[in-house]
Amino acid sequence: MRTREAGEVFGPRMTLFADVLSVGLATSVACLPLVTAPAALSTACAVLRGAVHDRPVTAGRYFLLLRQRLRAGDLLAGAVTLAGLLLLAADLALAGAGLPGAPLFAVAAAAIGACAAVVGLRACARPESLTDWRAALRGAARDAAADVGGSGLILLAVATAALCAWMLLPLAFLAPGPLALAFTAVDVRRSAAAALP
Description:
This protein has helices spanning 12-31, 37-49, 59-69, 72-96, 102-125, 133-146, 148-167, 176-195. The protein is mainly alpha-helical and 197 residues long. Helix 7 packs antiparallel against helix 8. The longest helix is centred in the middle third of the chain and has 25 residues, at 72-96. Keywords: Membrane, Transmembrane, Transmembrane helix.
């Protein structure tokens, strides 16, 4: 990263932090229709990945990329994600109703939901998600199994964002930016480790 120039108040890292927050706010707006959430998060990861190649990390670039990529496959991915979340919520509600074996069922449903979330979030961070969700999901499933530490980092990032949003609700609108940065960092870390001999 470049050094601070004379008269510059903030260094390049602070500028990147501000850019991440602006992309996070743009991602929150793009996620409002719910079915656009996977495409919105995938686009945020792509914009943040571009910082390595000195591409601008701005909300304007984010919306430009998002507008170019919203297609039927992206909306289908959003519909599948929404259906999965509703199914998990229904399963947990049934477990809370006091059915026989409910505690074990709730643990199993939560574990399956966590695994599905890790694979889905890792898929959003992969470059293939911009054009082919199936390839991104296959690669994410392989990475989730091979890189358990990275999968743990993703769950930790989501838990931290949820805790911050629970403590201070306005942070929920900024959380997608740092989350996209965390997911992208885990993917870049995995790619770099795979490239080593």
